[in-house]
Amino acid sequence: MKALVYTGTQSLDFRDEPMPELQATDSLVRIEASGICGSDMHAWHGHDARRIPPMILGHELAGRIEGGPRDGERVAINPLVSCGHCRDCRAGLPNLCASRDLLGLGRAGGYAEHIAAPTANLLSIPDQLNAVHASLMEPTAVSLHAIHLAERVLNRPISECRTLVIGGGAIGALAALILEQKGARQISIAETSSFRRNSLKAMCAAQVYDPLSKDVPSGNHFELVIDAVGSGATRKAASELVRTGGVISHIGLQDNQEGLDTRRITLQEITFIGNYTYNQTDLQASLDLLEDGSIGSLDWVETRPLSEGAQAFVDIHEARTPAPKIVLIP
Amino acid sequence: MKALVYTGTQSLDFRDEPMPELQATDSLVRIEASGICGSDMHAWHGHDARRIPPMILGHELAGRIEGGPRDGERVAINPLVSCGHCRDCRAGLPNLCASRDLLGLGRAGGYAEHIAAPTANLLSIPDQLNAVHASLMEPTAVSLHAIHLAERVLNRPISECRTLVIGGGAIGALAALILEQKGARQISIAETSSFRRNSLKAMCAAQVYDPLSKDVPSGNHFELVIDAVGSGATRKAASELVRTGGVISHIGLQDNQEGLDTRRITLQEITFIGNYTYNQTDLQASLDLLEDGSIGSLDWVETRPLSEGAQAFVDIHEARTPAPKIVLIP
After folding, report:
1. At what angle do helices A280-291 and A137-151 cross, to 10 degrees?
2. Does the complex come out with an ipTM higher than 0.85?
3. Across chain A, how many H-helices and E-strands are there?
């Protein structure tokens, strides 16, 4: 099969690879759509010690089962592979499984014509949803999961909260769309790229601003701040901008630098929530949201042939593409 | 009246002071018991910019109303003074009031024979509870409030959790006693002072250990870690010791140094909760706990005359007293 292989820092090779080998619990899926995630970019930059070249990246996947009892079924793939029998898996928290892995991380991902995926991880795609939009299930579930955890802690519902999303990549943009669907009182997005600010303004009703400009919100304002970057600088901003008694929802993993103001967090009784991926319910709820149009038309997704995937990575790196999401089509 | 006046770094003067002036909303209270808090020690060390000498410290107070319609009533004092009419006060969150103050911080405290306290802040002491034990209402409410906030976030009840308290001062000791009352699966206390470790072993069923020794718990173990110190070192320890999916409850304000591992917190989906003081319900619930013996005999409290209060501060500073709490009696 053809595959886009990550061969080293800033290097991708579109070439022939052997067909994936199936384990007894796997199904073969012909990939129809495979999104580029910030963590794939992170690996491409050589910054992810867990993704070791040569390997096939890609974990935002939709396609069609080939063979077996579900032959021909259209499926979105849950890329999180967990053991299924530990305390956390049995508690419905497979994202906390100590032996968790991810397709496109420890196992081969989906920048390819085919993938071997655990059959239990294949979710049926609703008829009305095309494969490109179904591949958004995974990043949508990341944002939905984080917002759900925050909702358990917020003193009042999202519909009464002023909210800020730091970082307008796909996770941030999807978070803003979900907040809009939930009727948040205010939605702001902090995004440094002018390209991205323009596309964010077109795709949602949020107030989009440049955090490096002088025209930024005053501190102590937002009941909920979602940090979809996860750097020292964004944690510092989140610490200042979150309102007394509010919540910082932390999704990004850009660096582990200092930034969080634990003194203000303590004196102002703020809650800081770490988020990692999703569970089955988040994935199913994301398919529902994508299918029924609740988070808009999704026409902001850009598609490119898998064979031109290497250039897509370069364009994202050089901030030459306004779309918050590029999906590769084998 | 006689008062113990904080006159400068490591300096306290027991001397005559004018009687407090009452505002229309205040009552005069004759102090019968006034505990020494870690934050009073912090001020005495010259490390609290909010407590400016000369002033009367002390905010863990019980006494008897003198004058007015409630003359003679035995009361414990809620030292948190809030405006009562802002959004947070009206929401039942007076601890988040932007204009909050504390007796013994911005206003005169209770290391004195009398204090002027807002009448609305005076809670009736149950008959069976003596003044010394009633003065524990305030620190008990700090611990109870933090545990309550953590309970809202924990995936399972305290009774199914392994818990760690970092710091065995009064807040930590009271937290351990409350966790014991709630039936926690395991309670450990990390305390560097051997004096305190011995008294902690006598007062509760916790496993008490020296975090500076080699015999410390392994990482990723405790569903709940209560950091009752709040230093870079304790946040680092909390980050390591908290179990995947668990909660760090942060009460202390020792420093704002780096220490929190936001990467682990994110990848392991940990929640970090900042805590500041309490609300009226926490205070009332604390009086209930203290009265009905739920958290033990309270015979670990040491009392000293207010006139000898300066020496008590020195003894605490030099770690020459095993008691987690010294209460001064005017």
Report:
1. 110
2. yes
3. 10, 18
> Strands A207-209 and A186-190, how do they pair?
parallel
- 3-state DSSP: chain A helix, strand, coil percent, rounded to 5? 30, 30, 40
A217 preceded by a cis bond (ω within 30 of 0): no
Alpha carbon distances (Å) from A199 to A210, A303, B247: 13, 16, 37
What is d(CA B206, CA B324) in angstroms, rounded to the nearest whole number?
A: 15
| Regions of chain A short of the pLDDT cut 50 | none
Neighboring chain B residues of A42 at a CB cutoff of 8 Å: none
Considering CB atoms only, which of B230, B256, B270 is closest to A261? B256
pLDDT tens, position by position, B267-285: 999 999 999 999 999 999 9
Q: Which residues of B touch A235 (CB under 8 A)?
A: 262
pTM: 0.96
Which pLDDT does position A319 carry in this prediction? 84
Rounded to an integer, what distance in angstroms lies between the CA atom of residue A122 and that of residue A81?
11
Q: Which residues of B touch A244 (CB under 8 A)?
A: 88, 96, 98
Chain B: which residues have CB within 8 Å of chain A?
88, 91, 93, 95-96, 98, 149, 152-153, 155, 230, 235, 244-245, 250-253, 256, 258, 260-276
